[in-house]
Amino acid sequence: MKFKQKVTLSLASIALTATQFVAAQTLLNVSYDVSREFYKDYNAAFVAHYKKTSGKEVKVDQSHGGSSAQARAVNDGLDADVVTMNTTTDVEFLASAGVVAKDWAKRFPNNAAPTTSTMLFLVRNGNPKGIRDWNDLIKPDVKVIVVNPKTGGNGRMAYLAAWGYVRKTGGSDAQAAEFVAKLFKNVPVLAKGGRDATTIFLQRNIGDVLITFESEVVSVDREFGAGKVDAIHPSISIIAENPVAVVERTVAKKGSGELAKAYLNYLYSDEAQDIAAKHGIRPSNKQVLARYASTFKPLQLFAVSEYFGSLTEAQKVHFNDGGQFDKIYTVK
After folding, report:
1. 2-116+241-291 falls under which CATH superfamily?
2. How far is 216 from 229, CA to CA, in rounded Å?
3. Which of 227, 234, 237 is nearest to 307 (CA)?
């Protein structure tokens, strides 16, 4: 009798252990290069929230790199549960391959973009070259660091922001093409992704100005110490949406669909929006945005649709092989 009781208890213990093991799911978020600090803090908040609301343990892993390179990795088999990108073209690419849902943009609020950003300039302390606006970037003595538009959304947004600046100030597409060509002639080396661009600028000490996402100002100050760079807000810049999607291929295999949806939905919560704002990423929640008015200085912003139709159309015209970018830039 005692032996049977011991066996029963042992089986119960095994069952309990198995239940705990199943509950401790792992989720992989594949994201763009300069979002790593934000997601480090967000993941901690989500894990605590998920434990509190569901009683389940979850572990979140991260993968960062140039956004297009990340999208290709997922397409090629990297088992991401979710993707959190900085340009819709990378998610559209995955949708066209059947990796994420065709209607991914309708699955979450704000066209599945919980946050946005824009492009700013980082210059060396004291701004020795006196850089104030886009026009200053085509001066012959100015060296510009930017991400390769063919490998990262950071670079595509910088390119489109420069093009849109010319259009917004009354120029034609022909004049915009000429302007952007002059800008890229001042680029000594193309970075692979946003963090690589920061490394080139600050660790390798190359260039006079770095075009990058607004959030990188906060990251630079934290990593390298305040006062290393000055942030310059140009007169005009672009709205860069940060789209998110569930990777249907992976969640179908792992059974992690509900967890993936919960992870992305929580990005819209007040807590997550506040974390984003602290990292210099613009929250979609207007009340949270208003609380950080000193961080997000006013500047004239335009949407991609104003001059390019959509990012998908811009991709075809400007960034696909043989497109406008290939016509104006030769890899050095």
Report:
1. Periplasmic binding protein-like II (3.40.190.10)
2. 11
3. 237
Q: Which two tokens stand for residue 51?
A: 């434990």
User: Which token pair is 292?
Assistant: 């950080």
Which amino acid, residue 214? E
Burial track 37-67 (b if 16+ CB lie within 10 A, e otherwise): bbbeebbeebbebbeeeeeeebebebebbbb
Res. 154: pLDDT tops 50: yes
User: Which residues of the chain are in CATH 3.40.190.10 domains?
Assistant: 2-116+241-291, 119-238+299-328
pLDDT at residue 15 above 70?
no
* Residues 16-25: tens digit of each pLDDT: 444 444 446 9
Q: What are phi and psi of 279, to 5 degrees?
A: -100, 10
CATH fold label, 119-238+299-328:
D-Maltodextrin-Binding Protein; domain 2 (3.40.190)
Q: Answer for the pair 148, 100: CB distance below 8 angstroms, yes or no.
A: no
Q: Which pLDDT belongs to residue 115?
A: 97
Quick one: 110 exposed, middle or buried, by C-beta within 10 A (0-12, 13-18, 19+)?
A: middle
Q: Which amino acid is at 17?
A: T
pLDDT, mean over the chain: 91
Instruction: Output the DSSP codes for 181-246.
Output: HHHHHT-SSEESSHHHHHHHHHTS---SEEEEETTHHHHHHHHH-TTSEEEE--SEEE-EEE-EEE
Q: Is the pLDDT of residue 208 over 90?
A: yes
Backbone dihedral region of 112: left (phi > 0), alpha (psi from -120 to 50 degrees) or beta?
left
Residue type, 102: K
Rounded Cα distance, 282 and 113, in Å = 11
Asked if pLDDT for residue 186 goes beyond 50, the answer is yes
User: How far, rounded to the nearest angstrom, does the alpha carbon of residue 311 sit from its chain's CA centroid?
Assistant: 15
- The H-or-E segment that residue 277 falls in is helix 270-278
* pLDDT of res. 172: 98
What's at 15, amino acid-wise?
A
Quick: pLDDT tens for 245-276. Answer: 999 999 999 999 999 999 999 999 999 999 99
